[in-house]
Amino acid sequence: MENDQQQKLISELVFLIEKGNAHVSMEDAVAGLPANMRTVIPENLPYSIWQLIEHIRIAQKDILDFCVSEDHEKLAWPDDYWTEPVEHIDDQTWENALNEIKQERQRFFDLLQDEKTDLFSPIEWGDGQTILCEAMLIADHNAYHTAEIVVIRRMLGCWR
């Protein structure tokens, strides 16, 4: 693949992960969320917005750690990917989680943009995954759960 084509692909991946094409960004999905709604679990749903944010954070970090190190800590599905419900999340904990998502996302973008990164070859310690595949996994996974955040906000009556 020519360098300008690869750069175009990387730009599209970054945009898809960060902003999305057909959906709101994660930042937009949580903007203006009242603090008292972070941990509410709507009837007939298994998790709160807080649990979704933590799940996005944990899964995204796990994907990145897998991409960069054979020695990454393997997490057990589903227990290590989901937090237990809590009654309250303070502003500092909330902001720390959102900031970590942004920082890990930027680390992944740095990996994508590193000229030594091969987007198409299988990751040596994986079982066929490529960096391109993992980028699409992050985009798909985060978009899915971002949509759930919007739906929960609608159910709680705190969406636009």
From TrEMBL:
TM ranges: none
Gene3D superfamilies in UniProt: dinb family like domain (1.20.120.450)
Top-rank taxon, per record: Bacteria
InterPro entries per the UniProt record, alphabetical: DinB-like, DinB/YfiT-like
Pfam families registered for this protein in UniProt: DinB_2
Domain DinB-like: 26-149
Name by which UniProt lists this protein: DinB family protein
Biological source species: Dyadobacter sediminis
